[in-house]
Specification:
- There is one protein chain.
- By secondary structure, the protein is α+β, with helices and mostly antiparallel strands.
- The chain has one domain (4-88): Aminopeptidase.
- Helices cover 29% and strands 15% of the residues.
- A four-stranded antiparallel beta sheet has the order 1-2-3-4.
- Helix 2 crosses helix 4 (58-66).
- The longest helix has 9 residues, at 58-66.
């Protein structure tokens, strides 16, 4: 039996999941301006982890869009057809069985 971690490691490109009103897909370089705009909002930043950069610059967003903690940890953007709505961040851990 193949573990979930092995399956995730095997993916070169994260899958795109399309629903009737939104799409979950990997972040792209072109998402950086919208990500910067939303992440620089004080109301958004106040609900994020301590140490989140503020102001959140375009360089921060560009770095995040290309960032991977490991090859097994892609970031995803949820789009409603116009701009990024949320960024989903997950850290896969070997010590937690799915």
């Amino acid at each position: 039996m193949t573990s979930n971690l092995q399956l995730l490691t095997a993916l070169d490109t994260p899958p795109t999941l399309a629903g009737s009103r939104s799409v979950l897909r990997a972040l792209r370089a072109g998402d950086a301006p919208a990500l910067q705009r939303h992440a620089d909002d004080e109301a958004v930043r106040g609900n994020l982890f301590e140490g989140f950069p503020g102001p959140y610059t375009l360089a921060d967003a560009q770095a995040w869009c290309g960032y991977r903690l490991e090859a097994t940890m892609p970031q995803s953007a949820i789009k409603d057809g116009r701009v990024i709505d949320r960024v989903v961040y997950a850290r896969y851990r070997q010590d937690i069985a799915a």
